[in-house]
Design a protein that fits this description.
Layout (H helix, E strand, L loop, with lengths): L17 H10 L1 E4 L3 E6 L4 E6 L7 H15 L9 E7 L8 H14 L8 H6 L1
Parallel strand pairs: 3-4
Antiparallel strand pairs: 1-2, 2-4
Length: about 130
């Protein structure tokens, strides 16, 4: 039986390899706010990685932060420009709720101009 993939970030978008993370750390343009740091490098494919330090808490706390981040980013994926994105959680993310995390993600994507340009049809539908 095949599992349904809706409701989470698809595996095809995940950035997993250490070498890819190192590439983004070296070459990426960064933008930060209280909760997050976003590193971005233009590439042909869309890949998203998450980094949550042990300084932010135990495994349960870190996984909670990653789940909030994934859920905040998932609906925005079709609107994102291609490239490698690395999201780094900061200490402000520890107590953040979903809506605060979502605003944080949107803020960083907007400041780095990483949303695709909307066509006239898309603007009319909203």
């Amino acid at each position: 039986m095949r599992r349904c993939s809706h409701g989470r970030v698809k595996r095809v978008y995940s950035l997993k390899e250490n070498s890819a993370f190192q590439f983004v750390y070296r070459r990426g343009k960064s933008q930060a706010n209280r909760e997050l740091v976003l590193l971005f490098v233009r590439q042909g494919k869309l890949r998203i990685g998450f980094s949550v330090s042990k300084k932010l808490g135990g495994a349960v706390q870190r996984n909670h932060i990653k789940r909030l981040l994934r859920e905040s980013i998932r609906p925005k994926i079709p609107q994102l420009k291609c490239g490698y994105y690395v999201w780094i959680a900061r200490s402000g993310a520890v107590g953040a709720d979903f809506h605060r995390m979502e605003r944080s993600v949107d803020n960083l994507l907007t400041r780095q101009r990483l949303y695709k340009a909307q066509t006239m049809d898309e603007k009319g539908k909203k």
